[in-house]
Amino acid sequence: MFQNLSDRLQDVFKKLKGKGKLTESDIKEAMREVRIALLEADVNFQVVKDFINKVREKSVGQEILQSLTPGQQVIKIVRDELQELMGGTKSELVFKKTPGVVMLVGLQGAGKTTMAAKLALRYKKKNKKPLLVAADIYRPAAIKQLQVLGEQLGVEVFTMGDKNSPVDICKLGLEHAKKNGYDLVIFDTAGRLHIDERLMDELEGIVKVANPDEILLVVDAMTGQDAVNVAKSFNEKLDITGVILTKLDGDTRGGAALSIKAVTGKPIKLVGIGEKIEDLDVFHPDRMASRILGMGDVLTLIEKAEAAIDLEKAKDLQKKLQTQQFTLDDFVEQLQQIKQMGPLDQILGMLPGMGGGKLKGLSVDNKELVKIEAIISSMTKGERANPSIINGSRRKRIAAGSGTKIQDVNRLLKQFEQMQKMMKQFSSLEKSMKKGKKPF
Ligand code: GDP
Predict the structure, then answer these.
(1) Whether residue 120 is found in the same domain as residue 236
(2) Which parts of the sequence bind GTP (predicted)?
């Protein structure tokens, strides 16, 4: 996500940090580079201009230039301004009545139908009873797609086929929800390839009959400035309440995320970060700003870990580490928990200093994890508990059983041995620290 922009900005700031004292011309030069980086990331021209002016004004103040760490302070100013640019603080969905009504709008292919399902899942997990309403009667298979997703989630889908008008479908869908005790209704409306008057009129018709709490425009982050233009048009016509940016998991340059709030005045509320129905996040401008500047996003990482990791198991593991009983079974369990947190490169990208291009050289292949799991599950219980008994013929059998090569099995056993050694050192270090000894 935003890799180029992130790399570029980090390069600019490395230079600033390297200097003990900064002059106005250092700042000018840095701002010139930031400006180019933002424009290349497809950020709206006027937005870039205002942004640079604000940062420059704040940076050339006497206290900053004469402080002990002027470079750091300029970076902080940029970070704070980036956060402001993206809306300052996170914006929640607000429902003023029951059932709450969310209307998703946007061009074809932006990710509305997928997002409708993601939202339904999100609220189902919060013990709400959502109803999905299939109002996209034009795209072939849109209704079917929503029905399949609904079935997968165990969420009802209200449909009237493609012969009724979307306005009627939404009206009756809402009535159905009221009669049947749903607390949230999600309209999946039709898109077009381009904005056209008829579509807008139809969407206005739905707004009139359903009075949605949230009119959320779904835009594809990969389309950069086009997404911003689309947002502008939809907002002028429908007065949207917020934006959902999808496909942020792709190689997006950042232009949409950084321009939408400034251009439309409407916040980005949620983001789609993958094709799976769990791949939905709240948009946190502060965390995003830190991520762009390579400062990591430890808060999101902790939240993901809390959601994926079983606390009881974690305690159990700690005990095992202390008593040095860490086995291959524990190893595979650890891998499974890490996998639940999401793709490994996404997780590592949230660590400070690990974002951007620095990950490229690192082998963080999820396929590798699958292989390791296959190898370990081809071992007998005895082998997993005591890997030292795994001799040549056993290695051959395990490789054949897991569809891997003997070298793969060897490598895994070696890695495990190293990890055990490391853990032994770690636990003796921990013990001596507990006794108050200095480790070094
Ligand atoms: P709609 O026409 O607006 O309803 O769009 P769809 O929901 O059918 O999505 C269009 C395509 O984008 C599908 O192939 C989705 O799987 C994909 N998609 C949607 N959201 C995301 C996302 O956050 N990340 C990625 N990588 N793909 C997405």
Answers:
(1) yes
(2) 106-113, 188-192, 246-249
Decide whether any atom of ligand 1 lies within 6 Å of the 249 Cβ.
yes
262 marked among binding-site residues: no
Q: Are residues 231 and 312 in the same domain?
A: no
Atom of ligand 1 at shortest range from CA of 272: 23
> Ligand 1 pocket check: which of 246, 279, 282, 346 to mutate, most ligand atoms within 8 Å of Cβ?
246
**339 in a domain, yes or no?**
yes
Domain membership of residue 171 (yes or no) is yes
pTM above 0.80? Answer: no
25 and 131 both lie in a single domain: no
What's 425's domain CATH number? 1.10.260.30
Q: List the residue whose alpha carbon is closest to atom 16 of ligand 1.
A: 275
131 belongs to an annotated ligand binding site: no
Residue 185: inside a domain, yes or no? Answer: yes
Binding site membership of 111 for ligand 1 (Cβ less than 6 Å): yes
355 is an annotated ligand-binding site residue:
no
Q: Is 344 annotated as a binding residue?
A: no
Q: Is residue 291 located within the same domain as residue 341?
A: no
SS (H, E, C) the chain: CCHHHHHHHHHHHHHHHCCCCCCHHHHHHHHHHHHHHHHHCCCCHHHHHHHHHHHHHHHCCHHHHCCCCHHHHHHHHHHHHHHHHCCCCCCCCCCCCCCEEEEEECCCCCCHHHHHHHHHHHHHHCCCCEEEEEECCCCCCHHHHHHHHHHHHCCCEECECECCCHHHHHHHHHHHHHHCCCCEEEEEECCCCCCCHHHHHHHHHHHHHHCCCEEEEEEEHHHCHHHHHHHHHHHHHHCCCEEEEECCCCCCCCHHHHHHHHHHCCCEEEEECCCCCCCEEECCHHHHHHHHCCCCCHHHHHHHHHHHCCHHHHHHHHHHHHCCCCCHHHHHHHHHHHHHCCCHHHHHHCCCCCCHHHHCCCCCCHHHHHHHHHHHHCCCHHHHHCHHHCCHHHHHHHHHHHCCCHHHHHHHHHHHHHHHHHHHHHHHHHHHHHCCCCCC
Q: So what's the ipTM on this one?
A: 0.98
Residue 153 belongs to what domain range? Answer: 100-295
Q: Is 257 among the domain residues? A: yes
Q: Please tell me whether residues 260 and 343 are part of one structural domain.
A: no
Q: Do 119 and 247 share a domain, yes or no?
A: yes
What is the count of structural domains for the chain?
3
Residue 190 counted as an annotated binding residue: yes
By most ligand atoms within 8 Å of CB, the mutation choice from 105, 112, 114, 121 for ligand 1 is 114
112 lines ligand 1 (CB under 6 A): yes
Per-residue pLDDT of the chain (440 residues; tens, 9 = 90+): 788 888 888 888 888 877 777 888 888 899 999 999 999 988 999 999 999 999 988 888 767 777 767 787 888 888 889 999 999 988 989 999 999 999 999 998 899 999 999 999 999 999 999 999 999 988 878 899 999 999 999 999 999 988 889 999 999 999 999 999 999 999 999 887 777 888 889 999 999 999 999 999 999 988 888 888 889 999 999 999 999 999 988 777 888 889 999 999 999 999 999 999 999 999 999 888 888 887 766 556 666 666 666 666 666 666 666 666 777 887 777 777 666 666 666 666 665 555 544 444 344 456 777 888 889 989 998 998 888 899 999 999 999 999 999 999 998 888 788 777 766 665 665 555 555 544 33
